[in-house]
Amino acid sequence: MQTTLSPPAPVENASAALPALGTVRLTVNGTAKTLQIAPWTTLLDALREYLNLTGTKKGCDHGQCGACTVLINGKRINSCLTLAVMHDDHEITSIEGLANADGSLHPLQTAFVDHDAFQCGYCTPGQICSAVGLMNEGQAKSEADVRELMSGNICRCGAYPHIVDAVTEVMGIEKQA
Ligand code: FES
Ligand code: FES
């Protein structure tokens, strides 16, 4: 038996079919922000496009590179894979919020500079935020652990050896011979 499919009925008022903008309250780097955004806005786009915090980078936009890593209540997350509306009243920290109030750098930022742990720098904000999350997790006990637990952060310049040097130094982990 043949089934005949009919085209969908035309939407008479397309704008009426769109969900209304929603109010989202985010605390970003210690400052409360209220945004009126579409419910499908990712946290990454909310940071970059609505709050002008462009330190967080968009690499793949599909959860595969780690360039968009930020911290939510101290835990690292790929901000391209989560919607801003899911983080009402959460504490979000991006790379712009890691330095101390007096302007001095976070120890990981200093270590990345000291170890020359970047080339183009595109992955660096995500690498550093991810390393802060790694330290908060308290799981990494060895250089191999650092490599494994940072493996979600891709560096197309291949700066991995220096990134590992920087992270292990700050964590007080001895380098393997
Ligand atoms: S931009 Fe989010 S993981 Fe690549
Ligand atoms: S420093 Fe260029 S992608 Fe990592």
UniProtKB/TrEMBL annotation:
InterPro entries the UniProt entry points to: 2Fe-2S-bd (IPR002888), 2Fe-2S-bd_dom_sf (IPR036884), 2Fe-2S_ferredoxin-like_sf (IPR036010), 2Fe-2S_ferredoxin-type (IPR001041), 2Fe2S_fd_BS (IPR006058), Aldehyde_Oxdr_Iron-Sulfur (IPR052914), Beta-grasp_dom_sf (IPR012675)
Key words of the record: Iron, Metal-binding, Oxidoreductase
Domain of life: Bacteria
PROSITE patterns, alphabetized: 2FE2S_FER_1 (PS00197), 2FE2S_FER_2 (PS51085)
Positions of the 2Fe-2S ferredoxin-type domain: 22-98
UniProt keyword annotation of Transmembrane present: no
Matches recorded under Pfam families: Fer2 (PF00111), Fer2_2 (PF01799)
Coiled coil: none
Nucleus is among the record's keywords: no
PANTHER family: OXIDOREDUCTASE WITH IRON-SULFUR SUBUNIT, OXIDOREDUCTASE, IRON-SULPHUR BINDING SUBUNIT-RELATED-RELATED
Name of the protein in question: (2Fe-2S)-binding protein
